[in-house]
Amino acid sequence: MAGEHVLICVAWPYANGPLHLGHVAGCYLPPDIQARFERAKGNRVLMVSGSDEHGTPITVSAETNGVSPQDIVDKYHTINSKALLDLGCSWEPNIDPRGVEFGGSLFNRTSDDEHHKIVSENFISLLNAGLFEKKIMQQYYEIREDGGRFLPDRYVEGDCPNCGAPGARGDQCDDCGVTYEAHELQNPKSKMNPDASIEIRDTEHFFYRLDLFQEALEEHASQRQSVWKSNVRAMTKQWLDMGLRPRAVTRDLDWGIPLPLEGNEWDGKCIYVWFEAVQGYYSCAKIWSHRHASPDDWEKWWKTGENGVKPRHLYFLGKDNIPFHTVIWPALIMGLNHAAKGLTASDKPSLPGPGELQLEDNVPAMEYLMLAGGQFSKSRKHAVWLPSFLERFDPDTLRYYLSINMPENHDTDFNWPDFVEKINSELIAAYGNFVHRVLTLGARLPDGRGLDSFDDLSYCNDEMEKLENLHHEITTSLERHRYKEALRNVMRAAQLGNQMLQSATPWKYLKDLDGDGAKESMAKLSFGWRVSRFLSIMTQPFLPFSAQKLWKALGEEDDVSLVSWYSAIDWSTQFKWSEDVPEPLFKRLDLEEILAQEQDLASDDSNNNSDPTHGVKGSKKTKKEEKKMPEGTTHLDFETFMEVELKVGKIMNVTDHENADKLFVVTIDDGTEGGRTICAGLKEYYTPEQMMGKSVVFVANLKPRKLRGVMSEGMMLAADDGNGGVTLVTLDGEISPGSQVR
């Protein structure tokens, strides 16, 4: 069965600065995960986006830096394109390796001549259909000796007319998300010349008749209620409840697409960026088709067939752009369909039918990734910049952290200690540790005895069932755009593998492969290869670099991204093996080293704020007054606290200490081959049976010492109620032994 045609539309970043991690988490990583997943399922995916190069943020940056707008967009299109590719986003190759019929991708530019032509043609089409009206509007004008100039959107700043927030832009408030006309600002001033005198003047512009599409958009929104996320439903409803009004589609600015009209009265005006940039999804598909496929192939991803089969449209963006994709862009699409049928403003618009351009199926908009409690911001240089990050770290570590911390339903926070902890105690300790154990133990087998010789699935029915259930859950989560949930289930598969190996203890049989218990134990190790293969396929959408590295280490020679999603649970797959020496997938991170680097980079950036490409942070949090602690409290330095290493261990054995009446000798699975031994004074409070199998917290870096002749290699944590009650600190739920506690 041929796969679906899936169009993945990615928000177009302004080419006025480098991308930061807020952009990545909100707009650019989720669609890449989705595209990789859809391709693995066999669907025909076309992913489109590019640099938005005509907005006033571009001209503001150019004026600030004393260069031309073209210089700005050329610089940052190159920087951002490279950064996205370095992150593993699948913008290349442009044609799907399976063939052009399966689609491909294009990260384009709005300065592209073909984009200009398509937008201009659409402008004329909508104009001829009577979907524009000319109106005199009021706009701020900066009085200068050379005659002055009109101040479009971001050239004006003031207090938001809705929430009162200072520093609001002339078109939208970043604090409350409300859009408005610049003349509605309170206490306005010229952004570039704050001391200049400004006044309101009349200027004539074209307005798009959004109001004509109110009823059709309400019908569309009602059909998407069960699909859209709550933030999408709420913001769309807010816009529709306010009632739609005509919206300006031209502005007084030289930088942009000139109006395709004759007459001197339109000199100095261009097409408004909101009207132009959203059409990039449509123009980009056409351009991809013209350059890489057949001229009309784009229609497969944009139009419903005469048989009623629809392509599926997914739009990925931050929450501040929701109304542009659920109200404005759908209204433009319906307008283009309206005009193509020869209808005019006097005819009632309708939702798309067969042969017409389709509306979105879902808009899985993200909330914000925050930095130090504040929103990432280019303009305020409060950010961790993507190019700088990728110069120093494995891209898959960032993909993992942002995926497991993705702001799907609420704002989340980026901080370095949490980043290091999640990489070291989750990604490495659970996933990386498991696959490395399988590969290294397999490599230690004697010549002539490969893992395939121990393949016996009859011992692994429980593991197969659990993995098949996890595969279903991961698939369902990705289909619903629940990326954190999907990745957590992938990590559960790694934890399952660790538990299987720890229970089977195959290392005990490497020197006696035919001894008692060896057959089952080695069958479990052999199945570890299949679990690793499962993980390589499942992690491919999230961690493409390490997934391919693992795929090769397993003896596979092709590209894991081309492997069927469902082959992960094909237990009949033929064994393969690589003779290369196994290497860890990831390197542990050192928090102190990172924080020292951050301090140096922040210092360097503060001395050179003109180009944030390689800087790390901008704004610093205001120092808060220290909270008063109870009398007698001794404060512990953070650095000292971070030296204490707390980990998770599972109690595997408990025996009496031969030389101490109050001590147990406890064997703990700590994620290493041999485990560790801890002497614990818990006889008064527990029996050995009560302790067995508990997941406990222990101090992992406590200096070993002999207690009555037995070397104790740590300390388990317990709570003392002060009244003779002592209880071990245990964990709720499954977590891999060796995981770090934070």
| Number of distinct beta strands | 25
Q: Give the CATH superfamily of the largest domain.
A: HUPs
Contiguous runs where pLDDT drops below 50 for at least 5 residues: 614-634
The CATH architecture designation of the largest domain is: 3-Layer(aba) Sandwich
Q: Please list the strands of the largest sheet in the order they lie side by side.
A: 19-18-17-20-23
Please provide a written account of the structure.
The protein has 742 residues and is α+β, with helices and mostly antiparallel strands. It folds into 4 domains: 5-110 and 277-371, HUPs (Rossmann fold, 3-Layer(aba) Sandwich), CATH 3.40.50.620; 119-274, Methionyl-trna Synthetase, domain 2; 415-569, Orthogonal Bundle (Isoleucyl-tRNA Synthetase, Domain 1), CATH 1.10.730; 639-728, Nucleic acid-binding proteins (OB fold (Dihydrolipoamide Acetyltransferase, E2P)), CATH 2.40.50. The protein is built from 19 helices and 25 strands. Strands 19-18-17-20-23 form a 5-stranded antiparallel β-sheet. A hairpin with a 6-residue loop joins strand 4 (132-142) and strand 5. Helix 2 packs across helix 3 (69-86) and helix 13 (461-479) runs antiparallel to helix 14.
Features:
alpha+beta; 742 residues; five-stranded antiparallel sheet; elongated; Rossmann fold; 4 domains; 19 helices; Isoleucyl-tRNA Synthetase, Domain 1; Methionyl-trna Synthetase, domain 2; four-stranded parallel sheet
What order do the helices and strands come in, and which of them pair?
Blueprint: E1 5-10, H1 21-40, E2 44-51, H2 56-65, H3 69-86, E3 103-109, H4 113-128, E4 132-142, E5 149-150, E6 156-159, E7 168-169, E8 186-190, E9 198-208, H5 214-223, H6 230-242, E10 247-248, E11 250-252, E12 269-271, H7 273-277, H8 280-292, E13 312-316, H9 322-340, E14 369-371, E15 374-375, H10 386-392, H11 395-404, E16 412-414, H12 416-443, H13 461-479, H14 483-504, H15 518-539, H16 544-553, H17 591-607, H18 638-642, E17 646-656, E18 664-669, E19 676-680, H19 688-691, E20 695-699, E21 705-707, E22 710-712, E23 715-716, E24 718-720, E25 726-728
Parallel strand pairs: 1-2, 1-13, 2-3, 14-16
Antiparallel strand pairs: 4-5, 4-9, 6-7, 6-8, 9-10, 11-12, 14-15, 17-18, 17-20, 18-19, 20-23, 21-22, 24-25
Helix pairs in contact: 2-3, 4-8, 4-9, 5-6, 6-9, 11-12, 12-14, 12-15, 13-14, 14-15, 15-16
